[in-house]
Structure to design on (183 residues):
């Protein structure tokens, strides 16, 4: 590959670069042929996959060459041709980062509160009054949640009960909890 004029990277450096499959330029996916003239074009040999060694096309400077992330359609950090972001863009990014930090703190606090509430709920000696109704309504709404099918739902798949042996039957000959008089 080096003889063909390609930049060849070692595997660790190549994995740190951005794969062509993850990039787009002018709303078009990048291909190896279309990317060959790019100054950031490079290749490395991936040896760790189940398919054996494979050449992987990458770009070592996607932001500097104006490529975009294919999946989010946003410009990669640094803008096109490595230009610095404007003051307004920096302020907007800073405000967005501050909001993200605040939201993360709020989520951490809410998660701790939720954990404490669930811990208290599970440590109770009795279930809440509406727990049985909630469980029945939940199982009835989604029969897949009922192992072996839900009673009263003829369309749900049912698994037969495990066979009982004669040694587990009471002396009356019927299922446990029954007597000859109740039959």
């Amino acid at each position: 590959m080096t003889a063909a004029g390609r930049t060849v990277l070692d595997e660790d450096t190549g994995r740190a670069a951005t794969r062509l499959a993850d990039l787009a330029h002018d709303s078009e996916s990048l291909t190896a042929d279309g990317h060959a003239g790019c100054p950031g074009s490079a290749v490395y040999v991936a040896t760790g996959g189940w398919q054996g060694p494979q050449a992987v096309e990458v770009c070592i400077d996607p932001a500097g060459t104006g490529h975009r992330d294919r999946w989010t359609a946003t410009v990669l950090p640094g803008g096109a041709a490595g230009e610095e972001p404007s003051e307004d863009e920096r302020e907007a990014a800073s405000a967005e980062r501050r909001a993200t930090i605040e939201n993360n703190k709020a989520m951490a606090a809410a998660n701790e509160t939720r954990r404490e509430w669930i811990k208290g709920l599970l440590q109770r000696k009795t279930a809440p009054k509406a727990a049985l109704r909630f469980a029945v309504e939940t199982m009835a709404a989604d029969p897949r949640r009922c192992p072996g099918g839900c009673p009263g739902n003829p369309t749900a798949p049912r698994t037969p009960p495990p066979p009982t042996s004669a040694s587990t039957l009471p002396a009356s000959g019927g299922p446990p909890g029954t007597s000859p008089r109740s039959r």
